[in-house]
Amino acid sequence: MPDLPPFEPIFLEEMDAIRLMNRIDAKYLTDEETLADILRDACRSGYRALVTEGSMVSPYDSVYYDTADHRMFLDHRNGRMTRQKVRTRSYVSSGLAFLEVKCKNNHGRTKKKRMEIPAGAFRDFAADAAACDYLERHSAFAASQLSPALETSFRRITLVNPEKTERLTIDCGIAFVNPRNGREASLKDGVVIEIKQDGRTESRMKGILLDYRVKPVRVSKYCVGLTLTDPEIRAGRFRERVRDIEKQMKNKLTERS
Asked: Which of 1, 108, 125, 256 is the most buried (most CB within 10 A)?
């Protein structure tokens, strides 16, 4: 990860107005060398960086859950417009953990619902009755249908525009572990940038990314990670997506760096 320019900080208590739990997302893929220039221009444009636990860079760990036959993965692979993802997420620095249900509708909008869970339930929430009840109320699945399918870890920078109408996440050092077969992979120096907004405001960041010829991509950490770590998965178009990422990164992604 490149050194950060002197962003003005923003703190968690200021973030409530820009949670954007009902939002339109746009993702971009670049490398760490280009990211250094993007961050410099973002700082000059007035973006602020979230500070948690005294740092602008936060480690994250996520576990994606799926059925034994990877129904949620296949819904995405098959282009189903209305689909869900279920994951747990650990905010490593604070020790907090959440169960999250992401639902995408046929208008391209994503709604995310989450509840805090005990840290010990992060890798398996099936024994937590409250989490199981929450899952059944907010998704099409029961906990008994799901098991861990992929663990991801990364370091995140979160930026907020001056108007507080847009949140930008920048994920580096993205690594994958498949708990069902033990295989590992990573995106090496690849960086995933995601712009989250309500769709009604202009984005300075989109202009900055365009200046560096960083174009929107359709990329899912879960789907890419599963494609990389499970040679038996019926990945379909996601294998081509991995090849496109490898071309852009000029690097093979089939082995963990």
From this structure: 125
Place of tokens 């929430």: 125
Q: Each residue of 9-55: pLDDT tens digit?
A: 999 888 766 665 555 678 999 999 999 999 999 999 999 999 998 99
How is residue 242 written in tokens? 């991995």
| Residue 89 backbone zone (phi > 0: left; psi -120 to 50: alpha; other: beta) | beta
Which residue stretches of 148-220 are H helix? 204-211
Angstrom distance (rounded) from CA 97 to CA 95? 7
Q: What domains sit in the chain, N to C, each tagged with a CATH number?
A: 8-249 (2.40.320.10)
CB 179 within 8 A of CB 149: yes
Q: Strand 48-51 to strand 8-11: parallel, antiparallel, or no bridges (unpaired)?
A: parallel
Segment 227-246, tens digit of pLDDT: 999 999 988 888 888 888 88
Cβ atoms within 10 Å, residue 6: 7
Based on its alpha-carbon atoms, the radius of gyration of the chain, rounded to whole angstroms, reads 18
Q: Which is nearest to 75 in space by CA: 141, 23, 126?
A: 141
Backbone angles phi, psi at 158, to 5 degrees: -115, 125
Distance CA 138, CA 172 (A): 30
At residue 56, what are phi and psi to the nearest 5 degrees?
A: -90, -5
Would you put residue 167 in left (φ > 0), alpha (ψ -120 to 50) or beta? beta
Identity of the residue numbered 149:
A
Point out which residues pair with 188 in neighbouring strands.
none
- Give the whole-angstrom CA distance, residue 131 versus residue 136: 9
Q: Which helix (H) or strand (E) holds 216?
A: strand 216-217
- Paired tokens of 206: 């989109």
